[in-house]
Design a protein that fits this description.
Length: 159
């Protein structure tokens, strides 16, 4: 293998380490992932919701935007903490502004999700389905509880 291919592989390794760090240390990243997993689970496993390929693509794109901005926010926080370990007004502003960018994208993603997925008939079908399939409802309930534990479980940041 050539040097350029090995450098490419290393770049994927470093990106993976960045993802791991963000998911391991950032509660908001785990919140985003939890909502994303449940949303796409219900979209892909069942036929409750009727959405087009374009709407599905919009959901994927907005989800990716939130994740990307959360990764950038994590990078900004790490850089600011490294450069200014002591409390500093401008350092705090930089971190707040980066977090604000994530908030804007997350709010937009929720609004887009509501616009696309607000289908009362789908929720009605879901209710009837789970009334007849209590075992699956219990599994989904356990998954929600595990997701909440995963999100809320405190972790030490290894910065």
């Amino acid at each position: 293998m050539g040097k350029s291919f090995l450098k490419l592989l290393k770049s994927f390794k470093y990106a993976g380490q960045g993802f791991y760090f963000a998911f391991h240390t950032q509660r908001n990243m785990r919140i985003h992932l939890s909502f994303l997993v449940f949303m796409f689970f219900f979209l892909l496993k069942y036929d409750f919701f009727k959405i087009s390929k374009a709407e599905f693509a919009v959901l994927v794109l907005t989800s990716a935007l939130v994740f990307a901005l959360e990764l950038v926010n994590t990078a900004v926080e790490c850089i600011v903490d490294f450069i200014s370990p002591e409390k500093n007004r401008l350092a705090g502003i930089a971190k707040d502004v980066a977090a604000g960018a994530v908030l804007v994208a997350a709010i937009a993603a929720v609004i887009i999700g509501i616009i696309i997925m607000f289908q009362p008939e789908a929720f009605s079908k879901m209710g009837y389905y789970y009334a007849e399939h209590i075992g699956e409802l219990i599994i989904v309930g356990i998954a929600v509880i595990l997701a909440v534990i995963w999100v809320m479980y405190p972790r030490k940041e290894n910065k």
